[in-house]
What does this fold into?
Amino acid sequence: MPLYLFWFFAIVMLLGGVAVVALRNPVASALSMVASFVGLAGLFIGLNAFFVGIIQILVYAGAIMVLFIFIIMLLDLKTEEKRAPKLAPLLGGLGIVLAFTIQLIGILSKSPNVEDKPLDLTAASAHFVESSPGISAKLGAGHLPDVNLIGDVLFNGYNLPLQIVGVLLLVATVGVVVLSKRQTT
Amino acid sequence: MASLNDYLLVSGLLFAIGLSGVVLRRNIIVVFMCLELMLSAANLTLVAFSRFHGSNGLPDYNGQMLVFFVITVAAAEVAVGLAIIVALYRARQTISTDDLTSMRG
It folds into this structure.
């Protein structure tokens, strides 16, 4: 990805994140979260992770944002009333974040910088000749079959975790139904 | 071309923004959104490492698998969390973390 596109998406993502924290209206926060996640999806696609980028838009910017907005509207939340912010949590929070950022910059300035290597699709094609000829043919033609490769790894290498995640989603669904049904007065 | 350190810096900044939101905001729904921001920052780190430490000329797809699972767990967490928030709101008529100081129903 060209450097200017990287910084464009990164700045969209960071400004969206700052707006989530700074804006007082929860609906505006939810919409800023969408802007942040669209920028993040741009960064994913720049890293050749096309499937993850699309999933990011579909799941987060679509489904989860709708869920948040729905709950905000259901509870009929008003903009937070202007209570005077307490000084101790404000200083504590900003102090933690500042310390974290300084640590991050300190570590990154000392760690060696890895440059982007272009993908070598022909070498990868040779690697898949025996295990899956379809993927090998697409790689040989110069395409990156991202979804095929992810499906290959997911169903061959991570089959048990996939089943467990399915059970997790089922348990979450049942839990939501139980939590919503019980009348607490 | 952006280098690995650029991606790690941007992802660390996003994590710090999410952390500040969790500490500073009192609206529990916004706290939840900031948790999502922190999970996404972790995802960006995973994808960046997957791309820059690839093998056989391809990205390392094990990292992207972990992103896939993080997204799934985050989706389940949001569903259950929002249900808990709705139940809390029914019981207490508020979702400000200042007023929610006890878990007793």
